[in-house]
């Protein structure tokens, strides 16, 4: 049993819960405990990550790249060692910005096995 | 996991108000084993007393939404609320989707509310193995009210009854009939029946069936019935009052104390059993187990005698530190 916990949050625009749900299902089937929190502001993502003591954060970016960047910045302050990956609609300039913050970006078209593989690697399961 | 000193330090940090330390302690409890044992020992000297409210019912009855609305109601009354929300782990992959927080969005980021999602991790009975330890962590850290939401249950997953002080059983209009209302199991553990989604058709019949079943109970066990529409916050005031009434009555009658005593017996049994099973598995996998299994296979000994000899190997140690 991995017992590894992943928090999934949406930042930015409401709606589009399907992508994160499909990813969450794949992670669940790979043995992860996936905590869904829905739409959240940066400080809410941080508190949920602290309270849930997660090993990895997945952000679904709904267009508002600034909110995602603020969430990652706030997470880095509170839990610098906590890995973050993200998906959703991520334009190239935003991708560079997030990657500069150490976030792995999985834009539309990414394959589920790659995302699951990343989750395993980022949580130290190899 | 770190030694007793490090554990005592983490507990002190959590008791001092660090949410991050509190959260890490719950993870220690979830990992179980010797870390969890060290945690229990470190919690023993901690003061603090909390009241726990269980929320149980079938999948989709509205437990999470009710937990959220009740949290709002208690918050309005000035209470700090901690919530442990349990969802099922897959028996096939051990994975889980913990979705209760999606209903708890109004409380995201509120420092007066602590929410922890727990996967059942193979534990049957509606709670996770670590739920009771997590409750004690919250108690030590000064959270006065702990809501415990079970997985969606059937009729026989009743751990919450032993684990909490007031049990809410959540039903919906159109649920069952008088026969269902009289069945053993879930219907017996309610301290309060909550008919949620009370704006739906069939409310009167459900209430009538419940009332008839309750009327046949002993006079000492007459759970209240409260109607709510959790999505709109309707009926939550009445629910808060019903919980306060139940708390007051059980405290006055001594029932509250009796329950806590029964809880101690249950937890003692569960933990002793868990340790026994671990020790047994270790012994089975070791040389003694293999030798006995060989002897049974070769028909040199019967299986019952072998089982008794296996058990005897577990009980030859008089020092409790060396016990399974």
From TrEMBL, chain A:
Cofactor: adenosylcob(III)alamin
Gene Ontology molecular function terms on file: cobalamin binding; metal ion binding; methylmalonyl-CoA mutase activity
One of the Pfam families matching this protein, by short name: B12-binding
InterPro entries tied to this protein: Acid_CoA_mut_C, Cobalamin-bd, Cobalamin-bd_sf
EC annotation from Swiss-Prot or TrEMBL: 5.4.99.2
NCBIfam families linked: acid_CoA_mut_C
PANTHER family linked: METHYLMALONYL-COA MUTASE, LARGE SUBUNIT, METHYLMALONYL-COA MUTASE, MITOCHONDRIAL-RELATED
Name recorded for this polypeptide: B12 binding protein domain protein of Methylmalonyl-CoA mutase
UniProtKB/TrEMBL annotation, chain B:
Molecular function as annotated in GO: GTP binding; GTPase activity; kinase activity
Protein name from the UniProt record: Putative periplasmic protein kinase ArgK
Family: Belongs to the SIMIBI class G3E GTPase family. ArgK/MeaB subfamily.
Pfam family, one: MeaB
Annotated keywords: Chaperone, GTP-binding, Hydrolase, Kinase, Nucleotide-binding, Transferase
Organism of derivation: Pseudohaliea rubra DSM 19751
KW Transferase (keyword) present: yes
NCBIfam families: lao
